Amino acid sequence: MKITSARFVFLLFIFAFTGLNAQQTSVMVRAKAKDAKFIGSSIGGAKIYIKNAETGEILAEGLTTGSTGNTEKIMNNPWKRNEDLSEEGTAGFLANMDLEEPVFVTVEAHAPINKKQATVVSSTQLWLIPGKDITGDGIVLEVPGFVVDILSPQTHERIPETNEVQITANIVLMCGCPVTEGGIWDASQYEVKALISSDGEQVKELNMKVGEKPSTFSVSTNLEAGLYGITVYAFDPVTGNTGVDKTNIIIN
User: Fold this and answer.
1) In the chain, how many domains are there?
2) Measuring CA to CA, which residue among 162, 167, 170 is closest to residue 204?
3) Which among 108, 143, 178 is the end of a domain?
4) In the chain, how many H helices and how many E strands?
5) Which among 18, 19, 147, 213 could disulfide-bond with 118, CB atoms 3.0 to 4.6 Å apart, if both were Cys?
6) Signal peptide span per the entry (predicted)?
7) Where are the alpha helices (DSSP H) in 2-100?
8) Which residues are 203's β-sheet partners?
């Protein structure tokens, strides 16, 4: 199709006008563990996506980086309206977008991104307005749960029937905050159990006790020869936080 000089000038004007109208808009997004602190570099961060809610187009993405924040301020001090919980250096992801018009977005946090058995998605939706920055605490997405890692026995480990099976797990909040006896995140508040199954049926349910090393829970048991699945779960009856990890072993 032939484009006349007048039409070309008109199209050029429209393109230039649209470009001039795009305004850089900064949006801070943070992920905060339920009943704990911000999710940052120490546990690998949260993966953040800002998407056009209508089309699914990703407008910005990145990892939250920085510290978990000020423990005293977040966990102990009374909170006042409009007061930021974050400080300089507190973990977050600052998205800088060129917006031409208001856009309705979905903001997602996949966290903690490096712990796949524990990663959950927290999301919200809102309008972003060109040139209207959202800073300070910004958009804070709460991430519930525990990160549970079975340390022993190892996956597919072969254990003699005559040996005790030592089940040990590491349990932290989603920010990596430690669980200790009498600590801010009190181990005595949590229910931690090992469920042992064989051929699809549960054969044992064992209470796990906190050890001297922070965040470590363990229990020992004996098993007959066979194939077993081990599930370790943590549950906080106060906050509803939960977490699970699984492994399989062979007793011969």
Assistant:
1) 2
2) 167
3) 143
4) 2, 16
5) 147
6) 1-22
7) 5-21, 71
8) none
